[in-house]
TrEMBL record:
SUPFAM superfamilies recorded: P-loop containing nucleoside triphosphate hydrolases (SSF52540)
Organism: Geodermatophilus tzadiensis
Domain CobW/HypB/UreG nucleotide-binding: 25-193
Taxonomic path: Bacteria, Bacillati, Actinomycetota, Actinomycetes, Geodermatophilales
Protein name in the entry: Urease accessory protein UreG
Keywords: Chaperone, Cytoplasm, GTP-binding, Nickel insertion, Nucleotide-binding
Residue positions binding GTP: G29, P30, V31, G32, S33, G34, K35, T36
Function: Facilitates the functional incorporation of the urease nickel metallocenter. This process requires GTP hydrolysis, probably effectuated by UreG.
Gene Ontology process terms (BP): urea catabolic process
């Protein structure tokens, strides 16, 4: 790859919701940025509105699925864990078989399924989902990593359908300037949306839930 080439160019382009069945929403991002906390929040907020389910990816454990079950955000039979055993991005981009199997299992178990969240294992700024696995993808970074993160780019930051900058409550503690994060996100993402949130302060993830509702609405229109 030429050194000045943007990795985002290598992300396969969205194919206008090619899947039948539920809308599949990928939740990716660095380790600890709040992907599981966001999945839990979205399940709590949207669980009564949609027939929904979650797939979690962990490298060596089923920790995230166990967390969701423990917190009873959804009935157990709507939560599936994939143990990747390898780099998280491999299972969401290169060989997506295990994740597709998990989604299909959930679809078979719940024929009316409308919405599936697929949480990637925590990775780094180079991770992104194959659009063979998800219809839209959310990339979650956090304020604690420093306000330089958005301008460092990477396909998740630049090309995801929604960038979430989580843990804004920590900004004063780590000296992060939220205006810088907002400005740099807009610069690298163009028209793609970014939301700065704190799941600590808004455990319902109100704005992200509204974005997901809009994605479901668009999908229904496309499906006729
Ligand atoms: N202060 C603060 N902490 C948060 C917020 N959101 C999540 N956390 C905490 O951040 C830690 C990591 O959150 P997770 O949801 O497990 O992050 P993750 O991205 O799923 O982590 P991995 O799957 O291990 O990559 C947990 O201790 C959460 O309670 C937030 O908005 N503010
Ligand atoms: Mg997690």
């Amino acid at each position: 790859m030429p050194p000045d080439h943007n990795l985002a160019d290598y992300v396969d382009a969205p194919t206008a919701h090619r899947h039948g069945g539920p809308l599949r929403v990928g939740l990716g991002g660095p380790v600890g940025s709040g992907k599981t906390a966001l999945a839990a929040a979205l399940c709590r907020t949207l669980g009564a509105e949609y027939d929904l389910a979650v797939v979690t990816n962990d490298i060596y454990t089923t920790e995230d699925a166990d967390f969701l079950r423990r917190n009873a955000v959804l009935p157990d039979d709507r939560i599936e864990a994939v143990q990747t055993g390898c780099c998280p991005h491999t299972a969401i981009r290169d060989d997506i078989t295990a994740n597709l199997d998990a989604v299909e299992l959930l679809e078979a178990r719940h024929p009316g399924l409308e919405l599936v969240f697929v949480e990637s294992g925590g990775d780094n700024l180079t991770a992104s989902f194959s659009y063979g696995l998800v219809d839209v993808q959310v990339f979650v970074v956090d304020v604690a990593g420093g306000d330089k993160v958005p301008r460092k780019g990477g396909p998740g930051v630049t090309a995801s359908d929604l960038l979430v900058v989580n843990k804004t409550d920590l900004a004063p503690l780590v000296g992060a300037d939220l205006d810088v994060m907002r400005r740099d996100s807009a610069t690298v993402r163009g028209d793609r949306p970014t939301l700065l949130i704190s799941l600590r302060e808004d455990p319902a993830a109100t704005e992200v839930a509204a974005w997901v509702r809009e994605q479901v609405r668009v999908r229904r229109l496309q499906q006729g």
